[in-house]
Amino acid sequence: MEGKMKAAVMNGIGKMGFTERDIPTPAPDEVLVKLEYVGICGSDLHYYETGAIGDYVVEPPFVLGHEPGGVVVEVGANVKHLSVGDRVALEPGKTCGHCEFCKEGKYNLCSDVIFFATPPVDGVFQEYVAHEADLCFKLPDNVSTLEGALIEPLAVGFHAAIQGDAHLGQKAVVMGAGCIGLVSMMALKARGVSEVYVVDIMEKRLEKAMELGATAVINGRTEDVERRIKELTSGRGADLVVETAGTEITTRQAIQIARKGSNIVLVGYSKTGEMTLPMSLVLDKELTFKTVFRYRNIYPMAIDAVASGKVNLKGIVTDIFKLDEAQKAMDYSVNNKADIVKAVIQIWEEK
Fold it and tell me: In the chain, which stretches have pLDDT less than 50?
């Protein structure tokens, strides 16, 4: 497909603009996707606010966005499993395929990865993208491209649940009720966890957690988290804690509320990268820490969970902006974190 497309670009810290680029031509193993929805992730906001995440520094003009869903409009010569018109969720990271981690199936740990919106690789706040066909997953008829865009964060939640060995009969706690906290909660429930309690300090997020199926919620600003979890678990403590807030306070609370011999899964990144934790208590309880970096081999499972009704992905969306509103979308997301759970940019309307 020849022609031009519109892309929203970050022109500097706090500055969005637009540019016109050539519609990409798919390679033999790729498909061209007309994007319909792209989620706004916390990492997008961090780049927008600060211009960098660790060693990854934005060089404007830069395209943000790595949570896409859309429709295949052109198919590369070698692609057999997708056709024009297929609606797809795009896994945003292409790995090398031959390092030890890729060969072990732990491809999320590959050092040689090309990942949307991770400098210097542009993201997908744009109308079209050419992407590896094997990383484009066909959506069932009852799963929208809006939900397809949100498979990416849901994959993080499922990876967290799997890392923590979540299963039937457990009582689990999720620290943080942002997007990743909520998808983690829904992933835990989809894997059969009997009771899931959610902790946050923002009331609107806690209301959303209850709406999406939390067993109970705890406002860490006004309630004693340790005491409430003790009450809710009849004094046993949590069988599994998933920490998504990325703060020292919530991580220390996770250690306090975890039952002896249980798992704590660390998902949230701390702003400083360092924490002081009560390690003597960790040893006394013989706790196991697991951590999460993106996800691996999750998309088919996550799509099936949405299609079967086990996960309500549409329920986490609180705000939808048009592509032309990219500046407004980013500014509103930065300045209204207490009110927004998940904002999404609509590139094209679904047909």
Answer: none
* Residues ≥6 apart with Cβ < 8 Å to 49: 13, 14, 334
Longest dimension (CA), the chain: 65
Distance between CA 198 and CA 225 in Å, rounded? 10
User: Would you tell me how many other CB atoms lie within 10 Å of the CB of residue 120?
Assistant: 10
- pLDDT recorded at residue 338: 84
DSSP letter at 62 equals B
One-letter amino acid identity for 48? Answer: Y
- Residue 198: count other Cβ atoms within 10 Å of its Cβ: 28
Q: DSSP E strands: which ranges in the chain?
A: 4-12, 15-22, 30-39, 52-53, 56-57, 67-75, 87-90, 93-94, 114-115, 128-132, 136-138, 171-175, 195-200, 216-219, 238-243, 258-266, 288-291, 319-322, 343-346
Span 41-53, pLDDT tens digits: 999 999 999 999 8
Q: 162: closest CA among 294, 256, 286? A: 294
| CA angle, residues 300, 46, 147, in degrees to nearest 5 | 25
Residue 291 has what pLDDT? Answer: 98
Secondary structure (DSSP) of 90-117 = E--EE--S-SHHHHTT-GGG-SS-EETT
Which residue in 325, 192, 160, 173 sits closest to 240, CA to CA?
173
DSSP state of 328: H
Q: What would the two tokens of residue 129 be?
A: 């993208």
How many alpha carbons fall within 13 Å on the CB side of residue 53? 15
Question: How far is residue 349's CA from residue 267's CA, in Å, rounded to a whole number?
Answer: 33
Q: What is the pLDDT of residue 54?
A: 85
- pLDDT on residue 350: 59
Number of H helices, E strands in the chain: 11, 19
Residue 308 to residue 293: CA distance in whole angstroms: 26
